[in-house]
Design goal:
Length: about 475
């Protein structure tokens, strides 16, 4: 028995030494040797996954900590809510910009620079003296961090063939979904014992690690020398989207007759018209008209907009409904969100097997059909004040959304090719966020009364959004 234990210990030590030597030799190799290594592509996927996790792991916990942050900084709920609203608007506006920057100047550069800036700003946010500084630094830090999302897809598109991309994209999607659960499990006790500032310290440290690993592992991606950046396109799109998203956000508070709302809508519409005029005339547009006319790109963006209007609309509605219908506290609501995130991650992971056997369109249609049906289940649960139906429907909807997400990214990337993968996925993320803003505002307005019937009607509207995504998804390949 002792001899067997000794042999096992010796074998384990030998295998550990071999693994250590393999890692060291891999890191010491020059770039060409490293990129020829059989595990190199898996290492790049791991970097992309780390970046995705770093950008999202504090999300669920931060929203749960908003009351504590507001109390600590002596501010109101309406003001502290901009800690979530401002980064969301910035995310929607900036995605095509950062995707295009990667396509023009190299996705590796954008990924590394984005995380370096995010690390610094996250640590600075931890030291914020007041709510104004916190909102500004959080927004800027999230802006820098989310720049890495289209960059990650661009890098992966360079090293994986079109028929190989679904697997890596699914892993990134899983990381985006799982990391908030890890954040709640690990960060929850820390926030309770140390305070909310530890959230930003942790995100800064993870971002710094992502930078170091990316410098070592990420491949060089080609640039397009001599191409001028579309400044006019960026400005008109940014003004247009920001104005319209602010109008959507303020609709419930101001009402449709408010002068400020009407000005925002007018500025937004005029700016977007100017954007499309500019894109027709510049040599290297931010979003090429030919790309937007591409049936697959347009269908993918429409599908993202509609399904996320329902899914992300319920992100905001769920805490409100759970408190109003079931009298749940913040901790319980956070764990409901965690279970939803787990359902989303499970769906994305499960989609990998189906994508190897079926076209992307079929996978998306399967997932989004489940989403539409699940939101009807949620509506029934709300109407009957039934926890199993309500929570069960939410989890099924999250699974279906996650099931379709990798296929959307794969479809839009394959439609434009690796050279425009960054801006195409950025545009898709923009559609995602626009849909989320529309859904959140619409569902909260419908459910404002807090009665079970009001919440049920809001959930049925979410189901209608999901059903609309089936119509656009039917145009995919």
């Amino acid at each position: 028995m002792r001899a067997t234990s000794a042999r096992d210990a010796t074998s384990w030590a030998t295998s550990t030494d071999d693994a250590y030597d393999s890692v060291i030799s891999f890191l010491r190799a020059d770039r060409e040797e490293r990129e020829a290594h059989p595990r190199y592509r898996a290492s790049v996927v791991a970097v992309a996954v780390m970046g995705a996790a770093a950008s999202s792991f504090t999300g669920a916990l931060l929203f749960g900590a908003l009351p504590a942050i507001a109390a600590d900084l002596h501010t109101s709920t309406s003001v502290i809510s901009w800690l979530g609203i401002a980064p969301s608007i910035a995310f929607a506006v900036s995605m095509p910009l950062f995707g295009k920057l990667g396509d023009l100047y190299g996705h590796r550069k954008v990924f590394i620079l984005g995380w370096a800036v995010a690390a610094v700003l996250s640590l600075a946010a931890a030291a914020s003296p007041n709510v104004g500084w916190l909102i500004a630094l959080r927004t800027a830090g999230q802006l820098a961090g989310t720049s890495t999302s289209p960059a990650a897809y661009g890098v992966l598109a360079r090293i994986f063939a079109p028929d190989e991309r679904a697997g890596p994209y699914a892993r990134v999607t899983v990381a985006l979904a799982i990391s908030p659960i890890v954040g709640v499990a690990i960060g929850g006790p820390l926030v309770s014992s140390v305070g909310w500032r530890v959230l930003f310290v942790g995100q800064g440290i993870v971002s710094a690690v992502a930078v170091v690993v990316a410098v070592v592992l990420l491949p060089q991606t080609p640039c397009r020398p001599g191409v001028r950046f579309d400044v006019a396109g960026v400005l008109t799109l940014a003004v247009g989207l920001t104005s319209l998203l602010l109008a959507v956000n303020r609709l419930r508070s101001w009402g449709i007759g408010h002068l400020g709302l009407q000005v925002l809508v007018a500025v937004g519409v005029v700016s977007l018209i100017a954007f499309f005029v500019v894109e027709q005339r510049v040599a290297e547009p931010l979003l090429a008209p030919s790309m937007l006319r591409n049936r697959i790109v347009a269908a993918a963006m429409g599908t993202s907009l509609f399904v996320n209007a329902g899914f992300n609309g319920l992100d905001v509605l769920t805490p409100f409904a759970a408190r109003a219908l079931f009298d749940y506290d913040t901790t319980t609501i956070s764990w409901i969100n965690g279970v939803r995130a787990f359902g989303f991650a499970s769906g994305a992971a499960g989609a990998r097997r189906f994508l190897a056997q079926r076209p992307s369109r079929q996978v998306i249609m399967m997932g989004h059909s489940a989403v539409a049906a699940s939101f009807v289940i949620v509506a029934f649960g709300a109407h009957e004040s039934s926890v199993p139906w309500f929570v069960g429907g939410l989890v099924i909807g999250a699974f279906g959304t996650g099931f379709g997400r990798p296929s959307l990214a794969t479809s839009i990337t394959n439609a434009v090719g690796a050279h425009d993968a960054g801006v195409a996925n950025g545009a898709n993320n923009m559609a995602h966020q626009v849909g989320a803003s529309i859904g959140q505002t619409t569902l909260i307005a419908i459910a404002a009364g807090g009665a079970s019937g009001d919440v049920a009607w809001a959930c049925l509207v979410a189901a209608a959004f999901a059903a609309a995504s089936l119509a656009t998804a039917s145009r995919l390949r």
